[in-house]
Amino acid sequence: MDKAKTIRDAATVILIRDAAVRPQVLMGQRGAKAAFMPNKFVFPGGAVDPLDGEVPLASSGAEPCLTRLGEDARPGLAQALLVAAIRELWEETGQILGAARAWQGDVPDDWHGFSQTGHIPSADGLAFVFRAITPPGRPRRFDARFFAADADRLKTDPDDFSRASDELSHLQWIPLDEVRRFDLPFITEVALAEIAGNLPDLGAPAAVPFFDNSDEENLFRRLGGRGPL
Asked: What are phi and psi for residue 30, nearest 5 degrees?
């Protein structure tokens, strides 16, 4: 499989705290040897795994995000995207978006640590706010959906990263008015600009911005809107 040509579905979480005062966003730095965006400061996120669609998701709070995603995704992908977002947040930062509930049935390997906290994944508070496809010619390509959430939704201490993997280093809350001092991917800057323009509201926009690089022509359009901008 040529990873440079295959476009994988992915999910990213933009966590904001103190949205009405001095907003801060949770970010970390990718490793220097990473194949995709080395050394860049990014939001927690990653590709959808094959089993993400089978992981139980607390029904409370999943709407309207689940339906909104389903309007622009193949059947079954919407829930997998939400689960992937929560899983990646947990793996890369040790932070939990969940509901206090025991798992039913076998717990997938990737979720053992999460389940031991007494939670199942919950999309409560997640809003679908941005979508972007990696341009051609990159070593990895993703069709990424970005989800925003208020840090108050976390079930964990937002400053405790002790359970994070080593995939992201220098995990920190960065004030939005300082974030451009960091080495950011272009698409991250675009997503942050969209978020900042709507603060303190962290809900889903009426039309979700979509940076579409699926073909050679780049289009910036809005899902639910009137097409290309």
From this structure: -75, 155
pLDDT digits (tens, 9 = 90+) for 160-214: 999 999 889 999 999 999 999 999 998 899 999 989 988 999 988 888 888 888 7
Pairing of strands 7-17, 141-150: parallel
pLDDT digits (tens, 9 = 90+) for 21-74: 999 999 999 876 766 777 899 999 999 998 898 898 887 667 777 777 877 777
How many distinct structural domains can be found in the chain? 1
Residue 120's CATH number: 3.90.79.10
Identify whether 60 is part of a domain: yes
For residue 221, the Cα-to-chain-centroid distance in whole angstroms is 20
Instruction: List own/partner pairs for 99-108 with CB under 8 A and 24 or more apart.
Output: 99/58, 99/60, 99/61, 99/124, 100/155, 101/58, 103/56, 104/56, 108/51, 108/54, 108/55
In the block, residue with structure tokens 């001092």? 181
Asked whether residue 88 is domain-assigned, the answer is yes
| Closest C-alpha among 133, 109, 100, 121 to residue 9 | 133
Query: What pTM value is reported for the model?
Result: 0.90
Full residue range of the structural domain in which residue 58 is found: 7-228
Residue 201 lies inside a defined structural domain of this protein:
yes
156 touches 17 (CB < 8 A): no
